[in-house]
Structures are given as C-alpha cells and as structure tokens.
Amino acid sequence: MKRALTAALALAVAFGFAIGMAASAAQANVALTQISSDPFTNPTSQHATEVEPDTFAFGSTIVAAFQQGRFVSGGGASGIGWATSTDAGANWVHDSLPGITKFAGNGPYDRATDPTVAYDAKHGVWLISSLGKHQATGTWDVLVSRSTDGLSWSTPVTVALNPAHGFFDKPWIVCDNSSTSPFYGHCYEQWTDFVGACSQHVELSTSTDGGLTWGPVETPANTASATGGQPVVQPNGTVIVPITGGCNQNSLLVFRSVDGGASWSAIVHVTPIRRHIVAGGLRGGKYVLPSAEIDGAGRVYVTWQDCRFRPNCSSNDIVLSTSTDGVNWSAVTRIPIDPVSSTVDHFIPGLAVDRSTSGASALHGCGWAGGGGRIGGGQRQRGGVHGRDDAVPATADAAADAVANATFLKGGT
Predict the structure, then answer these.
(1) Tell me, what CATH number does 104's domain have?
(2) Least CB-packed of 19, 74, 76, 110 within 10 Å?
C-alpha cells in the first residue's frame, strides 16, 4: 500500500484492509468508493476477496493493482486485478491482468501475488510487477505487465525465473521520472530470494526501454540477509533502497546505486527495530516491513512499526526516519497517533508523499492497521509531526474481505 496520497486510504479500505468490524459510524469521515470486485469462481480460492493493494499516481491518472481470489493456504491468488482512474479518482475502470494465471487469459501460472505499480514517464508506460507461481514446483517468477494508458495491459514480461534453490518474494518496482536525471527512464525491480529462513538474498534488475526487456540479475556488494525493500529514486538518479534485515526483520537497513543500477552498494545498518508482537498471530507481528517514499527535493521518508517509545514495549507506534542521501538518517521520530500510555497497537503502515511538495512544506499521508478494528490516517506537514486517527469502519459487504485479509495477515506470500 503506497503513494497515491489523495486516494490511498480509501483504496486500502475498499480493497478489504478494514480488518476490524466494530469501529463506530461516528468515526468515519472518509467517503469510500468500491472500484473493483473479485471476478473469479474457482473452488480452490477464497472468493469475494481482493487484498494487498498498491497504487501509483501520475498526473490525473491513478493505477491500482491487487490480488483477486486469495488462496486460503500456500500464498497467492487466482489473479492480479487492476483499477484505473484517468480523472483523479472520480471514475474507475477495472479488470484482471491477462496472461498470468490460468484463470485470467490462459496464463501459465497457477497463482499470482505481490503486485506493485510504477510509471515510466520517459517511455510513457505503466508497469505492474507481480510474482507468478507454478504450484507443482513451488517456484515463483518475477513478472512485469505493461500498458501505455493504464487500461489495456500486455501479457507479462519475465524479469527473473525462480532458481533451483529458494523462492522469490517481496518484489517492488520503481522508475526514474526526473527528466534531469542521467538515468531518466531507468526502471528498477527489486525482490528477495529466500534461500532459507535466515538467508534472504536481495536481487535486482534494471530496464531502460519501458519494461520491454530487463538486464541481468544484480546483487548488493555484500551478502547481508534482508527483505522487504522499497526502492525510491532521487532527482539526481540515485536509487535508495530501505529494507529490513535479520531473521525477524529486527533492523532497518539501506543500500543504493549511483550509476543507474549498474552496481549496488553494500547493505548497511540504519537503526534497530524494536517491535511488539501483534496480537492474534497476525502477519504484522511476524514481519516488520518498511514503507518508503520520496518528496520533490529527494528527501526519503521511511515508516515502520516500532515499540521503542512505549513503556515495556507494550504496543507499536508508527515511526519515521528521513534522509537526503541514503547514507545519513535522522533520529527515529514517533508519529503521535495515540498517547504512549494507550494500549492501541499500530502496524503495517503505508506511506504516501506528494512529490510536488518538499522540505518543511512537504505533505505526507500514512495509513496503518491498528488495534480496536481501525484503519488510521495520519499526516506530517510543514515540518511538524502530527497524528490524526481517522478510523474507518467496514461495511457488511466487506465481511468476506475481512476473512480473507485475516488469512492474508496470518499467511504467506
């Protein structure tokens, strides 16, 4: 969940991230628009479910991607859905990406998962990255679907085939859209090869032709175990990848490229992550993954769940750190959504930044899942850190999605 600032929170709930059903109607002040629904009927999946959304906005166009028909066990979904608005969210068109799964366009894969969205301004192409799974072998391939208008989508281009060892997970895609950058039009795909529980190899590939072809698989200069990276690109072309490390994602790490993806630095430590295990065995208690964005001047913002500010690490806050170069990072700051004395937990943040703003006047939004059946929304604007909790209740029609998201939050890929 990321990016399209004006729509991100509404989209997140519309896709079923309202994991609690008990928030009061008085708390709801966000109008919701349903923009898609699960079209599949195969008996092997949980239906009326759409989960794990991602969005990207460029100009007045917003493209969202998400899983459709989540499998109850083993990870993945019947297909990858997309929804596009060309008028800043007023109206939407939706469908499923063709040629990935056998359920949508006779694709070769049994399941698909982990969609992320990017736009390549130089080549005028929308890109949706995903993983396709061959169930018989348990292998996942990294894929990219392309569109010049966000409405008609190609069959996928293969970025990387799953090797004989391990399995791929957690892909993320980004493009360099600064016309003054020496690497304008480069797009970067990053993912993790899970060789073992504590052996997570970061891999990347670069495209310079709008996602038509992809270069060789590259790796950081060291072999530090890490996963969940979210690359962002500064106006000067530097790619910065905040990522978490350790068997339990107990530290925030970072690496970068200053030569358009030809080489990548070593992965280095930024700060420890202290986490409270989320109740109910939810996935947010097992995985602490960052959400990263960048403003118009190139300042990188990273949020994650962390309990360092709570007495005895009793629950998680959403916290923030920033950097202008990917090397030097600010002290970790707590976003004051609730008093530190509260028992409310906050986890799985999704960050958005208005890239027409920067510095002290930069506008940011952050959504998160929380205890008490809440989806929250916070803002940080004009240099100060402010918290706002706009809890959004789920509707009766979201019951199936709530079940699917409980499965997703407790499940795998």
Answers:
(1) 2.120.10.10
(2) 74
